[in-house]
Amino acid sequence: MMASETEKTHTLLQSCSTESLISSLGLGIFCLVADRLLQFSIIQQNDWVRALSDNAVHCVIGMWSWAIVIGVKKKTDFGEIVLAGFLASVIDVDHFLLAGSLSLQAALTLPRRPFLHCSTVIPVVVLTLKFTVHFFKLKDLWCFLPWMLFISWTSHHIRDGIRHGLWICPFGKTSPLPFWLYVIITSSLPHICSFVMYLTGTRRAMSSKHGIHIDV
Ligand SMILES: [Zn+2]
């Protein structure tokens, strides 16, 4: 009993190292600055520039969040960070899928929100992935993937939520999220995930792959 309590305390400390706290503070500041920069008329006046820079911010937040999870001072697996950014960005492809064309005009004037922007999809896909990874015994190599997808997609939905609210189909949608809530959720999400990953043993499995060593 005592041992497990000690272990939990260690776990909590591990997911909140000074480096990761500083980098999530940096992520919070990035969130504050990026959306202000996107308001500049040079970006707003062209649809493609606006859409691409908006998507780039999703990408950077996804990459940054995953970098916090796997640790910033270590020799990080850059491929994994790029994959996290890709997952955070790729959601917006559903605009074009629903529009059935590559026309940005059509993608921006949809009659309803496209399906990957329904937040219920996140737990469904994450659990399916977790099951798949387990079932095909890919745990050693891919145990991180459900977590990465969770962080990347959640951060995307929360950021879109500033303007559109969260769409929890089939229950409807919330009102737009306050900006401060978006910044707080986005910068604390990597820590919450790291913590749960330690508790569920995913971090231990990843450590052997990444060579993450934890000194508390
Ligand atoms: Zn989106």
TrEMBL record:
Superkingdom as given in the UniProt entry: Eukaryota
Matches recorded under InterPro entries: TMEM267
Keyword match Transmembrane helix: yes
Transmembrane domains' residue ranges: 114-133, 179-199
Protein's UniProt name: Transmembrane protein 267
Organism: Equus asinus (Donkey)
First-listed, main subcellular location of the protein, grouped into a coarse class: membrane
Membrane topology: Multi-pass membrane protein
Localization (cell): Membrane
Keywords: Membrane, Transmembrane, Transmembrane helix
A GO cellular component annotation in the UniProt record: membrane
